[in-house]
Amino acid sequence: MVATQKSLFQTPKIPLNTSKTALNPSSDPPPTPKVGIYVRVSTEEQAKEGISIDAQIDRCQAYCKARGWQVFKIYTDAGYSAGTLSRPALKDLLEDARTKQLNILLVYKIDRFSRKLQDLISALEHLKAQNINFTSVTEQIDTTTAMGEAFFQIIGVFAQLERGMVKERVELAFDKKISTGELLNRAPLGYTYNDQRKLVINSTEAVIVKEIFQMAATGISYKDICAQFRLPTSTYYEIIKNPTYIGKIQYRNKLYQGTHKPIIDESLFFQINNK
Asked: How far is the C-alpha of 199 from the C-alpha of 191, rounded, in Å?
């Protein structure tokens, strides 16, 4: 009887070889990051600064080894300036980024990647859209960290500011052209630009434009007019609806007085378009 009661209070034995994986079989180790190393040098830079391609590669590979990162590919642009993004190895890198072949872009120094803020912003936004982190060996730029993520946010603010400033500059340029009566687009049939970029009448083409308007005013169908002058239908409508022919300029759905001479009388123009 005593033996039976003792057995009721015995503690079950737990196997000593129970592993962490067995306790939580769903927890897998995170995948090893795949790194694209980008190195660049121009001939002049290499002579002056001594930052050779091999030196950059060695430092970047050592950085990856220290962090346990896997080097996916080394992209090398030797003899190319950082003043443009039109570099063969950089294009390959951005294409591999687009197809998600890597997780991290690593450079020895940020100016190896680009020295123009606008180009840098554009490239970093492209990488961000592909969920690719950007890291520099010699600078405190590492978007795998919280501080690095903040860096990307700051870059995004500057990108938005740059886009806004570009838009303002374009609108200002357009407004200035409109105020002086300049055409914003290519010269339409019947006109050409002179050496001062002023719109002047092309007498030979102007005859054709006048005939098109006169035929349309008399009720001749657009199909017959297009056939006679071998015009696509879209071109025909571009001509008869274009206020440039009455000396006006259209901008943001408003008409402004131009500085060029008209080819068509206003009454004829509005007679056709009111139909």
From this structure: 6
Q: 224-259: b or e for each residue (b if 16 or more CB lie within 10 Å)?
A: ebbeebebeeeebeebbebbbbbbbbbeeeeeeebe
Closest CA to 257 of 150, 185, 173, 183: 183
pTM (2 d.p.): 0.46
Q: Which helix (H) or strand (E) holds 37?
A: strand 34-41
- Closest residue by Cα to residue 88 from 99, 103, 100, 77: 77
**Nearest Cα to 135, choosing from 33, 31, 32?**
33
Query: Domains plus CATH for the chain?
Result: 34-163 (3.40.50.1390), 191-274 (3.90.1750.20)
DSSP string, 239-267: HHT-GGGGTEEEETTEEEE-SSPPSS-HH
Residues in CB range of 85: below 8 A, 6 or more apart: 114, 119, 122, 123
Closest to 272 in 3D by CA, of 179, 229, 210? 210
Q: Tell me: the pLDDT tens digits for 26-45?
A: 455 567 789 999 999 876 55
The alpha carbon of 205 is separated from its chain's Cα centroid by a whole number of angstroms, namely 39
86 noted as active-site residue:
no
Find, among 53, 36, 130, 41, the residue nearest to 92 by Cα. 36
pLDDT reading at 9 higher than 60: no
**Active-site choice (7, 19, 26, 42):** 42
Lowest mean pLDDT among 18-32, 37-51, 54-68: 18-32
**Residues 6+ positions from 233 with CB-CB distance below 8 Å:** 222, 223, 226
Q: What is the mean pLDDT of the chain?
A: 80
Q: Cβ–Cβ contacts within 10 Å for residue 163, how many?
A: 11
